[in-house]
Amino acid sequence: MREQMRGKIVDFWQRAPALYYSLYLLLAILFTLSTPWALLFTLLLFWGRTVRQALIALALFLATLYYLQHHFYFPPTHSQGSFRFHITDVTSPKKSFQKGISYKGNIREVVNREGKRERCCLPTYLYVRQPLDLDHDYWVEGMLHAKNKGSYFIRSLDSPKIDKKRVTLCKIREQSKRWLKHYIHTHYKGTLTAPFLIALTTGKNDDPLLKGHLTQIGCAHLLAISGFHFGLIAAFCHFLLKPFFHYKIHTFLVIGLLLTYLLFIGKSPSIYRAFIFATCFLMAPIFERRSSSINTLGVALGICLILDPIMAIDVGFQLSFLATGAIIALYPKIRESITCKNDKGIMLFFMNGVALNVAVNVALIPLTILYFHSINLHSMFYNLFFPSLTALSLLLFLSAGCLHPLMPPLAKVLHLSNNFITENFLWIAERRPLYEKTLFLEGPPGWLITLLFIVLYGVALNASIKRKSL
């Protein structure tokens, strides 16, 4: 029995080698930066592998540890000095009473009080009262504070000084987002509809009231650009271009449009993952290869970590990849277990929604407890229909936007219809749930989270090895 199980595990990992090695890369980064218990998963993954594959994985793990220890500089908490700040995005202050502008970017160089220079690439936020020119890097004199290792913000002690002009997409991105916001406000007059569509398309939500309404029903994740939004846009582009172009030309056009959208949104772990995933999926038939969902997820994970190792400790990154893995590994098995052959129409749609909710929530519960210390008990109900209504709203907006230059009257009808539909389903979010219950938990010990993930790993593996292809 043990040998049979080991053989199934070997077969599973042979179909997903990219995921296997990417997991070792992820665990090495987590172990180095913030999560000592990641070492337990490293040992767990050794079981069921050949000696050669285990040695390659071990070498990758040790090489990553060496690189991060010797070539990545992490300034100490509350350190004072000069920091060369590279702007990547403009964000709103986290608190409504804060005045000024918040810039998201990277620290490229640090000069400490002793005059020692260190090169690095750390994700950082900078709060200033006066706007900065997005075409320049800046030297900022101030205090560097760390929420945790790899997550920083600068408290400036003086006005930032211009370092050098550079070529950047940040300014073009901000101008494009302002134009899109203006277009949405022109066609949508609803109190919540315009901010909702701006968040869905630009990834920026400047309306705390909207976020508060969606948070209380457990649907705030819909405001953050993720693979869900990216997949809808990819599907829209696919069906829009398919009738007019040969498959290969159509594929490259879709990838080009998705790349344009990625540059428009800016740096986002879930968008990187979705873009790589979609590109691999679209390119596979051109090279006459069969795409494996679970292995493609591993490719996306590896590329993201190579481009930016610090991304591994980003909460959004972890939730995005874990949710996608749950959909691939757990959802088909759960759907098969709870649906019947007689289920059709609305009943089938409802049961598929239940299966998807169960798969995603089971996978995310450990991380939700770890980071937020709470579980929204009624979110599963609202997530049965709110994502579908959100998808309808986004697709109607995209359709109207494409028709606007060709048939303005028809586009106006679609905008008005979308405004009516979106305003009415957001009305549900404005009303407090009939049964509002959030379970608050103290910060769980690391061993409990480890145990939960080991159980989840076993369940997902057992579900996956029973399916010949994913």
Based on the model shown, name its key terms.
470 residues; five-stranded mixed beta barrel; two-stranded antiparallel sheet; globular
In short:
By secondary structure, this protein is of the alpha+beta class. It has helices at 2-14, 17-33, 38-46, 51-71, 170-187, 193-202, 208-216, 227-241, 247-265, 269-283, 293-307, 315-329, 331-338, 345-372, 379-382, 386-403, 408-430, 446-464; strands spanning 79-91, 101-112, 117-128, 136-148, 151-156, 161-165, 374-376, 438-440. The strands form 2 sheets. It has a 5-stranded mixed barrel. The protein has a two-stranded antiparallel ribbon with strand order 7-8.
Report on this model:
By secondary structure, the protein is an alpha+beta fold. The protein contains 18 helices and eight strands. Among the domains are: 2-71, no CATH class; 79-168, Beta Barrel (OB fold (Dihydrolipoamide Acetyltransferase, E2P)). It has a five-stranded mixed barrel. Helix 2 runs parallel beside helix 4 (51-71), helix 5 (170-187) packs antiparallel against helix 6 and helix 12 packs antiparallel against helix 14.
